[in-house]
């Protein structure tokens, strides 16, 4: 068995960044809407059940404003969920413009993501990007070729340090082909419930039922509202039939109009006048 990784010097005394058992959450370096780093995952996510991972870019944002409004309403309404923005932009200012006045969390930008441009050069001409806390972030290529693996569906020993995932690596785990791309992750079962989720699933008409399904780990609970909507026409027909039967039984044959209607229809079809 391989020995556990040692955290970098900058992380000594900051085990709160990774000391949760969930295999995905402990590999994310997250920031609050204010830009403040989340340094105690266990405390911040104690009451969370669902993560909505949204991989997006500034390009085409103008066409997504309705979706962004729906996602903002979702984040404000469902306190047991967290929306995490995964920027695929190469300009560090781009996600700041996207996230302005939005209550979403975000992955840290400085992670040397595979799709990120080189930000700095040292005096010897070797190009390097500033990396948050000096950590060695897992890159997309490592996930794609299987050099680095994340086993979902199980808990990990939370006190062991693990390499964090870059934004690019997370998009691979989300099976992102283009943006916007949304994935639903269930914290209690440590699994992705759905990937490439349609943005229309967050519209006001659909979001309640969908979130109920996501909170239940992908299994929709049976609600009276859903049963009624599915059975409303048979129920209405049954109620009308009962009313008709009672009217005939207690009101007399003058209320038994169905035979007369049927006779009238047969006369018209047969082309003959009533006797």
Automatic annotation (TrEMBL):
Domain of life: Eukaryota
Name of this chain's protein: Uncharacterized protein
Lineage, broadest ranks: Eukaryota, Fungi, Dikarya, Basidiomycota, Agaricomycotina
């Amino acid at each position: 068995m391989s020995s556990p990784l040692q955290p970098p010097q900058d992380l000594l005394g900051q085990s709160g960044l990774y000391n949760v058992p969930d295999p995905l959450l402990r590999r994310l370096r997250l920031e609050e809407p204010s830009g403040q780093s989340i340094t105690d995952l266990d405390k911040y996510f104690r009451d969370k059940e669902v993560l909505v991972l949204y991989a997006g870019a500034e390009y085409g944002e103008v066409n997504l404003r309705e979706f962004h409004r729906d996602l903002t309403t979702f984040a404000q309404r469902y306190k047991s969920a967290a929306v995490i923005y995964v920027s695929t932009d190469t300009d560090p200012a781009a996600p700041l413009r996207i996230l302005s006045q939005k209550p979403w969390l975000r992955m840290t930008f400085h992670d040397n993501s595979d799709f990120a441009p080189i930000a700095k050069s040292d005096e010897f001409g070797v190009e390097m990007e500033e990396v948050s806390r000096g950590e060695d972030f897992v890159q997309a290529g490592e996930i794609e070729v299987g050099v680095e693996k994340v086993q979902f569906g199980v808990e990990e020993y939370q006190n062991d340090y693990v390499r964090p995932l870059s934004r690019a690596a997370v998009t691979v785990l989300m099976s992102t082909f283009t943006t916007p791309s949304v994935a639903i992750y269930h914290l209690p079962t440590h699994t992705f419930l759905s990937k490439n989720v349609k943005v229309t699933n967050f519209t006001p008409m659909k979001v309640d039922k969908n979130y109920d399904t996501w909170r239940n780990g992908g299994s929709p609970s049976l609600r009276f509202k859903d049963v009624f909507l599915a059975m409303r026409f048979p129920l209405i027909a049954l109620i009308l039939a009962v009313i008709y039967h009672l009217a005939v039984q207690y009101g007399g044959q003058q209320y038994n109009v169905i035979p007369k209607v049927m006779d009238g229809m047969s006369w018209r079809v047969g082309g003959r006048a009533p006797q």
